[in-house]
Amino acid sequence: MNFLLDAYRKLIDASERENISSQRRDNLEGALADVMLLGGQQEIDAANRFQQDFVGGKSSSLVPVIESLRKSLRSELDLPEIALPGHFNFRLRLKGEGEPGFYGDGSSSVPSALVADGADLLHQINSAQKAKTGRALSYERQKQVIDAYGRAAEVDAKRVLWVDDDEDSIVYERAMLKAAGVSTVWAPNTARALELLNGSAFQAIISDMGRVEGPQEGFALLDAIRERGDRTPLIVYSGSNRPDYVRAVLDRGGQGATNDPSRLFELVMNEVSR
At CB < 8 A and 24+ separation, what contacts does 192-200 make? Predict the structure, then answer.
């Protein structure tokens, strides 16, 4: 199982690059060698055809090798067979490559990644989803959240203010956004949030509704920032996504409300992509 995962990742990495470094070429050769030594017959045949075509100067593709490994992995995990998308890309790129940048202003912060790994992004979103709802996303919903990420992928310095009096309750959701290259700065209350908004720029604000200050403190924050002319988009992330609740947030000048991590992800991607 470990050999399958390792070979699969290395082949995906090589297949997504027109020019590969010597290190990645060594990884590719090692992955193909592992497939030839340890793979099943279908995997061996696919790897052999690729190597023969490559050495012979013919048009060569790693897709058949990747598909055979993917089928084996799904079988090992007792997952149903699903065809690989025609235009797959497991490395979701932003502009350029290099060291990730960091933000900090005295509060907690996370790096703004220059390259997001699609498999890790889906893993983090599913982890948040299962922690909140007890179930993973459907295949269709996974496609939708990846599409949402795609709309924001080329935006540099994605940065969000997160206001919640229970930092431990949003660990999975913050990891989900971090995997998409979004830096989140946490504030425990309205007063601290307003201080941070005075000196820093954010593309969006996420707020819970009820806090120690009051049961509708999310509205209090929204009213306060709008009264001083701050148009930063605000999304309420709390215990309800009833239509009347969402409408109340929109009528108050917010950009949405949800209690679902994947929907929160979409709302944030929509705002940072504007």
Answer: 192/163, 193/161, 193/163, 193/221, 194/221, 194/224, 194/225, 196/105, 196/107, 196/161, 197/161, 197/225, 197/230, 197/232, 199/105, 200/105, 200/159, 200/161
